[in-house]
Amino acid sequence: MTERPKVAIVGGGFGGLWAAQALAKMPVDVTLIDRKNHHVFQPLLYQVATAVLSPGEIAQPIRRILHRNKNTEVILGEVVGFDKEKRLVKLSGGEEVGYDYMVVAAGARHSYFGHDEWEAEAPGLKTLEDAVEIRRRVLMAFELAEREAYLTGVKKPLNFVIIGGGPTGVELAGAIADIARKALAKDFMAIDTTSARVVLFEGSDRVLGTFASDLSESAKKQLEDLGVEVRLNSFVTDVEEGRVKVGDEWVDCDVVLWATGVAASPLGKALGVETDRAGRVRVERDLSIPGNKDIFVIGDMVSLLQENGEPVPGVSPAAMQMGEATAANIRRDLKGEPRVKFTYVNKGTMATIGRSKAIAELGSLKFKGFIAWLMWLFLHVFFLIGFRNRFAVMFDWFWAYLTRERSARLITGDAGEMPVTLSQSSSTPDPKPARKPKSGKGKVR
After folding, report:
1. Residues 91-108: tens digit of each pLDDT
2. How far apart are CA 372 and CA 380, in angstroms?
3. What is the pTM of this model?
């Protein structure tokens, strides 16, 4: 080992960032590698996907976050493999980064259970790009329906399908229902957005299955109060353009979103150690991999059981705690002290369902409705990195709460790129609009 150890961190998510911050004042040189230049506050991705927030309000450049860490270098690049014998991290361009300690925190993506071809029709939500694409699809569905109704007089009901009743699925379903029934209700003239159908399919017997059963039932009722149709014990077995198959039933839809199934980064398997079915690495109690005490794996890539036999959940608080614990064990190594086993401290779980609707479980305490929503709101804003981000998010949320306005209702791309879904050709002479423009100046709204 060199006089000043080198620590390579793969991934700039919660685990990687918290590890880097905890290593900031140690006598080590840190290199953080990520294929994107920004950290995303993933719990708020659905707010970007449903046009409440803009991407820049939940993201911050990694280099800016760590700019005070004098011992840390940030490298933009994609890690493709490792050489554990030579202690090297391999990048896609052929470059290599040496290390004495390596922390792999590359996160996870959505899993389609062997049907990756479904992703084109049913995008998941893990990155800013995912969120912007979902926002485009949701808003485009309303625009196309309005165009068809205006040009042909055909008013086709809109159908939105969300697959998966975990936190992401519940958040998306509630937010889309709120958009259709409140936020956009007065903005379209030819269609009635409040008639849009939002269906949530969940394979188990309840939504938000990690919560207590009474809170899960409360979440279901709050969703239904928003107009969401919740269908439990319903497995989606096929996804095609414009429809999904549930059992033997085909359900038509304009937009389908995937919110179930998680697969760890393939870098876990590249380490050459045992992984579970989702690709998560089975680590030792100190978060190192078997046979290599100098390599740690943290965050969503980890398969580790707690003392009570329950797995450590793949949530941001667990990743943060793992990052700090890993840095602490590196410090102990440098001091010649024995390492400490990682212990996850569950500080509570929360899920938002819609405007003023949420559930929260803090130990034996349970909350639902408006109080839980306030708790969720302030906790998530508190963890946002950067004062500007916190201020912007609070302002947009406050404004959206008072007015139900969405501040980020933007569809990127030109009108000519939109798919044509009119019931009849738009070149048909003298199309009959569903409603005449209010202005006599020929202005189409």
Report:
1. 999 999 999 999 999 999
2. 12
3. 0.86
